[in-house]
Structure formats: C-alpha cells, structure tokens
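REQUEST FORM: STRUCTURE PREDICTION
Request ID: SP-0412
Submitted by: Lab K.M.
Chain count: 1
Length (residues): 222
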Amino acid sequence: MQLKEILSKHQSNFHEVMKGVHDTSNLKKVDMSRYNKELMAVDVNNTAVFTEWMEEQLDGKIGWGGYMEHREIYRRSKHFDGQGEPRSLHLGIDLWAPAGTALYCPLDGFVESFADNIGFANYGPTIILKHLLDGHVFYTLYGHLSRSSLIRLSIGEQIQRGSRFATLGDNEENGNWPPHLHFQLITDLMGKVGDFPGVAAVSDRALFEKICPDPNLLLNCQ
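STATUS: Completed
RESULT:
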C-alpha cells in the first residue's frame, strides 16, 4: 500500500495541526500563484506591506493552500535562485495565521532534526518530525516557527499526537514572511538535516511530487 492510500485511510484520525483547520468556516483559500494579479501588484519585497496585504485577505480567518502552486514571489530572494532554473514550485501547504499561533502534532512522531534556517525568505526556525504509520516511515516539516519553538528540543524526542510543540514566528524571526506555517510531507529526506527544499524548479516537478505528496492528506483542510 502506498503512503497516499495509508494517509487517506487514517485521515479522520489526525489531530488538527492548528486549531480551526478542520472547520471550513474558519478557513479561506489563498492564491499565492503567479496568476493572482492582485498579489502581483503588491511589493512583496517589503515585508510590512506584504504582511498588511495578507491580513486584509484573511479577515480573521486561517488562510491555506499552495501545494504545487507556481509562484513568482520567490523572486524576492536570491535564496531561491539556482545556477540554472530558479525555484518557483511550492511543495507544501501554507497555513497563514497570526504569530504565536500554537501548532499541534497530527500523529505520534519523533524529532528527526531541527534548525534555525536564517536568511531573507528562508524557513527560519524549522522542525522535522519522523512518523511510522502502517509500516511506512515518512516525515513532516514545519517551517517559519518561533525561535522559542526550538528551545529544549532534542533529537529523538517523542512528540505525541495532539500535543502542542511549536508556535508560529513573527516576520523578524521567520525569514521575513507574513506569519504562517509551511507544512510539508516528505518520504525521502535525501540526507538533509533541519532543512529540506520547500520550493523546487518546475522541471523537477515529477521527482518532488513523488517524495512530497499532498500535505492535505494529513492536514484535512476542507
């Protein structure tokens, strides 16, 4: 059985990663793609302006979306420029919510690694958890956290389903982004520690669709 099938089978048993994401009345789909003309008119290089725009879009709700979305906003940072094709394909789902919002473990796991990925438009504080479900090992990545989320964390530490284990960071610590969670499923870490690409080149789509399945199989946003 493939991981997608396993996650689908257990989907109703996963705890909310963020309170309210299983309630459609709390959610708003956010289009961060190159096709959103309103977003393309925003000065995303100015984090304060970008954050104000996002808050207006959300109007108090939790924003979500972005899996395999083709985005132009990464041009704001050289972090996403490779030696050839730039990276623009988003591999996770973003949950846009205020800084300090608590995050909860969706299913039992262990701390695989963590790091503060410093740099403009980078992840900032990041945690990767390891999970075992029906004999399949996979990982969940949580990016753009608060620095306090990494304090007293240890490799191999068990994180139980439903336990609060992190909070969202503000834009001074989360890589200069409007506050949000980058949530990603990963089946092969490719040797990465405390970090993993959250954005890929479009030409690498087939590879990353295989090792980074749709996070909504676990998030269960409706």
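NOTES: Helices lie at 3-10, 37-40, 47-58, 205-211, 216-219.
Reviewed by: T.R.
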